[in-house]
Amino acid sequence: MDEDALSRDDVIGKVCLTRDTLAAHPKGFSGWTHLMEVDPDEEVQGEIHLRLEVLPGARARRLRCSVLEARDLAPKDRNGASDPFVRVRYKGRTQETSIVKKSCYPRWNETFEFELEEGAAEALCVEAWDWDLVSRNDFLGKVVIDVQRLWAAQQEEGWFRLQPDQSKSRRRDEGNLGSLQLEVRLRDETVLPSSCYQPLVQLLCQEVKLGVQGPGQLIPLIEETTSTECRQDVATNLLKLFLGQGLAKDFLDLLFQLELSRTSEANTLFRSNSLASKSMESFLKVAGMRYLHSVLGPIINKVFEEKKYVELDPSKVEVKDVGCSGLHRPQTEAEVLEQSAQTLRAHLGALLSALCRSVRACPAVVRATFRQLFRRVRERFPGAQHENVPFIAVTSFLCLRFFSPAIMSPKLFHLRERHADARTSRTLLLLAKAVQNVGNMDTPASRTKEAWMEPLQPTVRQGVAQLKDFITKLVDIEEKDELDLQRTLSLQAPPVKEGPLFIHRTKGKGPLMSSSFKKLYFSLTTEALSFAKTPSSKKSALIKLANIRAAEKVEEKSFGSSHVMQVIYTDDAGRPQTAYLQCKCVNELNQWLSALRKVSINNTGLLGSYHPGIFRGDKWSCCHQREKTGRGCDKTRSRVTLQEWNDPLDHDLEAQLIYRHLLSVEAMLWEKHRELSGGAEAGTEPASPGEAPEDSLARLLRVLRDLREAHSSSPASSPTSEPNCLLELQT
What we know:
Elements: H1 19-23, E1 29-34, E2 47-55, E3 61-71, E4 84-90, E5 93-96, E6 107-116, E7 124-130, E8 138-145, H2 147-153, E9 155-161, E10 179-188, H3 194-210, H4 218-224, H5 231-244, H6 248-261, H7 275-306, E11 321-324, E12 327-330, H8 333-356, H9 364-380, H10 389-408, H11 422-439, H12 444-449, H13 457-474, H14 479-492, E13 497-507, E14 514-524, E15 528-532, E16 540-544, E17 548-553, H15 556-559, E18 564-570, E19 576-582, H16 586-599, E20 609-610, E21 615-616, E22 619-620, E23 634-635, H17 651-664, H18 666-677, H19 696-712, E24 725-730
Antiparallel strand pairs: 1-10, 2-3, 2-9, 3-6, 4-5, 4-7, 7-8, 10-24, 11-12, 13-14, 13-19, 14-15, 15-16, 17-18, 18-19, 20-23, 21-22
Helix pairs in contact: 3-17, 3-19, 5-6, 5-7, 5-17, 6-7, 6-9, 7-8, 7-10, 8-13, 9-10, 9-14, 10-11, 11-13, 18-19
Keywords: Calcium, GTPase activation, Metal-binding, Repeat, Zinc, Zinc-finger
Organism: Sapajus apella (Brown-capped capuchin)
Domain Ras-GAP: 230-440
């Protein structure tokens, strides 16, 4: 798209990847793809509800087509809706429904009949169109019915997805509109009931509780059989699983011990992309993101707002003109370098000061994990010559793998809504380098690598002392303090998502009624959705979590505003209510919907349908129904839309993803089992309960077998089943 500030954005071109294309690349599709011209006849969406019957007749059989309703049609008119009608064609004869004005969820309930000849091969074509008074009608999609198949079935009814019209051959302007470089991976997972995953979860938890002295050593075996390319995914899934079981600290402690046991040189500790390093990265993002925002947020915002030119490398300096006593003179390179050093020293000093003040703000589980890391490293590398090694172990994660990446790419860590421009990016990069030097404890190697960073050395040396003092206090947390902090946090119900939203308010009654959106600060916890006038003011509960029945988008035409969602819930008296909330952009809308659906996915009484419009006057704006409490005209989406770091944990999904990974390395697990059991054949049944006790690997193989059988017998292919689908897209 080409963004326009005043008018509607322009379409440049599109890239379309089919599901088959993605399925053909299990490890992900990657490459440059040409943009193509957008053909309105191919941009269709929505479904149509049809009832098709073959009936006996006096001379010949008759084909009856009942056009009942449609949902989620493409809005083709300026008012954010369409004026849809349906055209039914068979053997040269065409019939049309009536036109439903201003609706993307029309209801017709009209029936058409055609004479049907036995053996006729021609298909029945059902087309949806948007009626226009002046210009030509717009195509909304079509369904082609195989009459031969219908003849055999005699009757068929259901929702049919509208398809594009690709009958017209046209020139594809490949290469003339530019290209997009894409990396896309599709994972489609069917998540079974929780009880199916309990044996796997219990087995993994038992291994972690036993630690490195456990009999099976499953965690080391998982690390050994995990390839480099999928190690991050496996680490994240394991970490989230153990976090949900309250064992994240124990899991990471086990990984620390395993890595320390095979590390001989202190300067190579946690420098590789091991399972320990990847798991700790994931842990900090899941458990420490709010903490990172509180420390880095003000500094990052200041860098963006100031937009100062900052450069320390003499080979990259751009000399600018500056004003001096009313006269303009060229600014010297030395002045540019000195001003840049002053700016960076100020930013680095502010960051270190904020960090030193943040000990109490750091989550208890993060502090306890760093305590374990600090102790394990100090036990492995004792002595004065390794005095800094425990500190560097902590900073290798906190500074090098958490703070520095967030400084360089604040948008990826949700610190900013947009990527930085070139000037701000350079400032952030230099600041991140300085933080890395402090995190490396100002080693000679870091000083000689980029000598032009020397002007920052006084601040870096002072920062090293500050950072060591901070880490000493950070890891000084006892078990009792950890439990007390966790108990306090659990009583506060930590926010799942929070931020400013606009809530819809209605004023007056009858013809004088008006509506508007008021800005408030919302907070979603595992207990309620609440709001306040400001982030620091007292919150009022708006909706209890257990009362949420659906969270869905609202049609743009309903309020004349985009990015509006509705939270359907019941009040304390059991009456249905709806809260309309407006987000500032589509990404924020999806994040809120994801969080709301995930925290309420186990609620009783979730709705199967809803109205994407509003009830105005005496009818719904979407489908024009006059019954306010009737069945909705669109289906609800209870599945999660995103995999955000701050989303609530989904234990069953994480267990399914771990099972999927273990299944992919099952052959290697059997090979290991043969080694341990003296050459048993792959696929040989592990010991039965009456025989010698199983080791943990044998139990794992038995669990994988049971899960495979559960998947083969699950109703995933049923039309009513909606398996979790994970679509990961990176552009």
